[in-house]
Amino acid sequence: MQISEIRVYSMPLLKCSKGLRARLLLANGVAVEGCGFGAEATRVGEVVFTTAMTGYPESLTDPSYRGQILVETHPMMGNYGVPSRSRRLHGIPVDYESDRVQVEGFVVAELPQPSHYSSMMSLHEWLRSEGVPGIYRVDTRFLVKQIREHGVLMGVISVYSDGEEPPDWDELARRLASSKSYDERMLALEASPRKPIIHRPKGRVKARVSLLDCGVKYGILRRLLERGVEVTRYPCTTPAWRLLDGYDAVVLGNGPGNPALLRDQARAAAEVAASGKPVLAICLGMQLLALGLGAEVYKLPYGHRGVNKPVVELATRRCFITTHNHGYAVDWSSLDGTGLKPWFRQPDDGTLEGVLSRDGLVMATQFHPEAGPGPWDSTWVFDMFIRLIEKTKSQQRI
Questions:
Q1: Domains along the chain?
Q2: What are phi and psi of 270, to 5 degrees?
Q3: Does the annotation count 370 as an active-site position?
Q4: Is 104 designated active site?
Q5: Looking at 124, 199, 304, 368, which residue is catalytic?
């Protein structure tokens, strides 16, 4: 990937309160200069945007954003600071979706000082402690238009001290050209735990499920634990027999990266789907399930990322406002012969947002029913999953 021409855009008379400046270069040659925050570092990633107005602690720690530079469309980020990790539900932090910041870089228009009773530190302090660079005082609307016109683009972000010589644009271009593209990286394996992790709910355990963890959000764990489900998270490389052995059901979780690279995981998902046990697949999990059963997955031009995305349940015509974070989607026309049928549709562009198996044992959503951040309109999907587990267990006792 070579950049033939670099076009630089910057705000005049730029004053940077953090003593840092930053540069961002996109693969199409568009370059912006702004103020820096977070860590003095240079990172490469796929540049994407989200329409969420709040919930930046959850978004920044969402493993599905691993390998990406996140642009916020809302003009102010950081205004309520960074909350404490001490607020927990069943041992899981309430305001975070993993144990670290996952993005490669963060792009915002303005970075106000935090003002909130629960804030433990500023967004600048948090990103600096995590080694993640950020840029502000840039026209994020302009950047979003670039993505809307050209599709998601690889980019490189660099933060440096105000008094230092800025990184050369040609050097940043070489750094970008020598880096793997987002679609080539096995990001799910990077986000996956190295060994099984068990989470037990308080009180009586109603069911035991295994979870294929290719970068699962804590929100999925919280929704299961609060319903009395014991969850064992397994590394992304775990075979199907291990996920099935001794468990009432299986969850195929979300995660980052190109699902086409995860051939073993897709085969495991297909074996799990044929096991006769209930299966819930979310986001990447739905893509792996579809690929394993013979469907096709394609890349969306600029993805679905936000907390205000509508989906329509086809059977009832009910509409729900949901959280999305996916750059790939399952092709409607490829479902024939897979044993899957459409469940949800995105009314804006027609993207397939959910499927059900024809035997009634497998359910999958492309959106995030657990929210985090976002509305709780679709958390009933977990209730439906629990009822399916209970029904299956009662039939086995007969």
A1: 7-183 (3.50.30.20), 188-397 (3.40.50.880)
A2: -65, -40
A3: yes
A4: no
A5: 368
